Amino acid sequence: MTFEEILDQVLAMLQRRGRVSYRAMMRQFALDEAYLEDLKEAILFAHPQIIDEEGRGLVWTGDAGAIPPPIPASPQPLEQPVTLPPRDGQLAIPPFEPQLPDAERRQLTVLFCDLVDSTALASQLDPEELREVVRAYQGACAKVVTRFEGHIAQYLGDGLLVYFGYPLAHEDDAQRAVRAGLGIVEAMRGLNTHLEQERGVHLAVRLEVSIPGWWW
Description:
Blueprint: H1 3-17, E1 19-21, H2 22-29, H3 33-46, E2 50-53, E3 57-60, E4 109-115, H4 118-124, H5 127-147, E5 151-156, E6 159-164, H6 173-198, E7 205-211, E8 214-215
Antiparallel strand pairs: 1-3, 2-3, 4-6, 4-7, 5-6, 7-8
Helix pairs in contact: 5-6
């Protein structure tokens, strides 16, 4: 047994029992006086939580400076899959390789809607009334867009940027965008009836549809 192996065993005994006599160490490991002195010096120097008790043995005094846990073995690299040679009459099966999905390219139709003469409208109403009017207009537009399964990508002041084809794609997204624009115009007629009676304002909208290949 090497010096390091004896040292590790003595430390384990101390941590487990709390104290070990020199006489027991000499008997268990067949140590002579010189070997025992070397072992004792190595333990007391490296581990301050272990003390010599009146020359009779070693005593474990607590957790301070406890013996560090053994260093785990270095992780082994993952083994590559082994392809066994085919037997006679059998086809070789290649190792499984996960396939990443190919990127999907979509045609995106964009609808933009905003208010006409919004500056004049802002001068006609106080800020709170203007905010309520714009919210009513945006709510009416949102209902139409939802009906045609469009996606409101962004609110730009009094404007709405709407996508058809993302995140839901349809074969007739261009037609849906045009129908949504016409639906917004129709929704403004009903909203104006209400706004003219309550606030004396009339809203007009401007629509632009960008379809791959042409502009409306």
